[in-house]
Design brief:
Structural class: mainly alpha
Largest sheet: none
Distance between the termini: 57 Å
Strand content: under 5%
Order of helices and strands: HHHHH
Shape: rod-shaped
Length: 140
């Protein structure tokens, strides 16, 4: 009888630490799940900005001119970049916008040489944009 009582005492003494360990395990799993969900949500927002920049770039190259509606759409779709990205990408998006304004200016002034230079820069950005955004569009 004393053996059974000792066994019950040991089991009841171990019950609290076992419950605590299980609680810690569940908390760690919840933390990992929330971190994964956060990364996924941030990725979607970052990818939307990347797509907006790529779409704007392709429209500029395709039409060889800047359209105000497309420009405003680009600015609206990339307005949250400063929160989601580092300064390098924010600066890149500003430069892309600035080059589109230059393209518009040169096109309206019929300065074809300068317009061609801007279009050349924009065309080079089709490859460069992937390099600029590369480190920020990974789901880890």
């Amino acid at each position: 009888m004393t053996f059974e009582k000792d066994w019950i005492d040991v089991t009841s003494a171990l019950l609290t630490p076992v419950v605590a360990v299980l609680g810690i395990g569940i908390a760690v799993l919840q933390w990992k799940l929330n971190r994964s969900r956060f990364r996924h949500e941030v990725f979607e927002k970052r990818y939307a900005i990347y797509e907006a920049a790529l779409l704007y770039l392709s429209q500029l190259i395709r039409t060889a001119k800047m359209d105000d509606y497309e420009r405003v759409t680009f600015l609206q779709n990339t307005k949250g970049a400063f929160v989601l990205f580092d300064e390098k990408i924010v600066t890149y998006l500003k430069e892309l916008h600035s080059k589109s304004l230059e393209l518009h200016l040169y096109h309206s002034q019929k300065r074809h040489k300068e317009e061609a230079e801007v279009l050349k820069w924009l065309t080079a950005q089709l490859n460069e944009i992937d390099v600029v955004f590369k480190g920020h569009l990974k789901i880890e």
